[in-house]
Structures are given as C-alpha cells and as structure tokens.
C-alpha cells in the first residue's frame, strides 16, 4: 500500500482528508503545495488534478480527487480503524445530505472572509497584470478571484457570506439537537462532521466564533472534534491562518 497526499497545510479541503487518514492510522507521504506560489498549477500537478486544486490522493498509482470523494474512497478501501460512515442506510443518507449541504453553503462561504481577511495583502502586492494572469490560470477559481479583484470583496459580499455561515451554524445546532449530540448524527463523528470541521475551525481562527454565541451545542461539538486523537496531527504547525499571517495575529491582539 502506497498513499501520497498532495495538499496544503491551510487548505480546508486538505484538512478533511488529513483527518480521516490520521484517524485511521494510515501512513502516507505528504506533498505540501504552496498555493499562493501556484504549485497546484504546474503541468505535473495538473496532470494529476486538472481542476488545479488540492487535495489529490494517489493510492498505488490510482489518482483520486475532490476531498469528499477521497474521504469516502478511504472509508471504502480501508475499513480498519474508526468508521465514519454509518451502517444504517437511513443514517448514511442523512450523513451524505449533510455533506452536500456543507459543500453547497458553508464551504464556499468561508472563502470570502478567508480571502478578504488573510490573503488579500498578497494580491494587493501584485501588479494588476500579474493578478489577472494568475486569476486566468485558475481552472476552478477564475471567476471567484476576478470577482474579488485586488481590492477585495465588497462589504455586501462579506455580509452575504457571513449570513450563509450563520445559517450553516443554525443548521448544525438543529442537527445536533435532533441527534442528541455531541456530534451531528449522535455519539460518534461521521464524514459529515469531518466535512464541516475545517469551516468551523477556520471561523474560530478568524474570530467569527461569535456566530455561535448562544448555541452551546455548537461550541461543545467543536471541543469534541478537537478532542479527537486525529485533530492535533491534522492541524500541525502552520495549518491555521493566524500562524502564518502576522496581520491577523495583530488584529486579534488588538481585540
């Protein structure tokens, strides 16, 4: 068995897959890509993942892309260790519905405050021509970057993204209440919890945790996720934005 994971420390989609691999105790070679430097756009990587994003898993020569697909692939191929897919078909369908919701609502929404609050200085330092060339090179993120531009997303777009994140938090709260918690579907975490984990961790890192004020079940869910043995090796040093961007740490210190 040979597993190689092409990923980036701060990539939320990469963090999902790292968590599953770590939880199952699967040894893997990690290839860390610098996304701002464009490592994901070089021809050798695009030959593996034509979407030009991370993560990509290579298992004995077979290439698997898309974080949700990779997580389910690992579950199917490596049944050892904790299981993150319920055996009951109804519970499994609920899990997959939650995963689709995460990929449709909070996962895209968190990109807006991430880029505005953390990555924007990098793009502001670029010339307009260099920025446009970089945006045009992105197979999946071209329109997103062009909408942001070198001045960032407007206040209206930030407000809309925070609104979507707030609705997602409410959905999590309601789901935990219905299952009895502490996780989304009950006593044990599933791929649905792992899917949304990087979004909630990123929100806390960006000081957006006020969005679950008054929702103690969500705070307890986050603590239960952080207590999982796979959490620390998944969020190794450099995986949080505040560890890499001094301006974020300064903003936090000023609050």
From TrEMBL:
InterPro entries per record: Glutathione-S-Trfase_C-like, Glutathione-S-Trfase_C_sf, Glutathione_S-Trfase, Glutathione_S-Trfase_N, GST_Omega/HSP26, Thioredoxin-like_sf
Limits of the GST N-terminal domain: 1-82
UniProt superkingdom: Bacteria
Cross-referenced CDD domains: GST_C_family (cd00299)
Xref: Gene3D superfamilies: 1.20.1050.10, Glutaredoxin
Residue ranges the record marks as coiled coil: none
GST C-terminal domain mapped to chain residues: 88-248
One GO location term (cellular component): cytoplasm
PANTHER family per record: GLUTATHIONE S-TRANSFERASE OMEGA, PTHR43968
UniProt protein name: Stringent starvation protein A
């Amino acid at each position: 068995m040979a597993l190689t994971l092409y990923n980036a420390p701060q990539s939320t989609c990469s963090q999902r897959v790292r968590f599953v691999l770590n939880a199952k105790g699967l040894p893997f070679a990690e290839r860390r890509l610098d996304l701002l430097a464009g490592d994901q756009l070089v021809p050798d990587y695009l030959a593996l993942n034509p979407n030009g994003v991370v993560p990509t898993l290579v298992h004995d020569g077979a290439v698997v892309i898309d974080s949700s697909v990779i997580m389910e692939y690992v579950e199917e191929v490596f049944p050892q260790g904790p299981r993150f897919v319920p055996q009951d078909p109804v519970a499994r369908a609920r899990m997959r519905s939650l995963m689709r919701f995460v990929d449709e609502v909070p996962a895209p929404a968190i990109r807006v405050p991430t880029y505005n609050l953390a990555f924007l200085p990098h793009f502001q330092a670029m010339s307009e021509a260099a920025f446009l060339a970089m945006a045009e090179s992105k197979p999946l993120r071209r329109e997103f970057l062009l909408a942001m531009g070198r001045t960032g997303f407007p206040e209206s777009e930030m407000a809309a993204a925070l609104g979507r994140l707030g609705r997602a938090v409410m959905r999590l709260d309601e789901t935990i209440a219905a299952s009895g918690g502490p996780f989304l579907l009950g006593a044990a975490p599933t791929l649905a919890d792992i899917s949304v984990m990087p979004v909630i961790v990123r929100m806390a890192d960006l000081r957006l945790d006020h969005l679950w004020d008054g929702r103690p079940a969500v705070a307890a869910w986050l603590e239960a996720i952080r207590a999982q043995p796979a959490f620390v090796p998944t969020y190794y040093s450099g995986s949080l934005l505040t560890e890499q961007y001094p301006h974020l740490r300064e903003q936090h210190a000023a609050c």
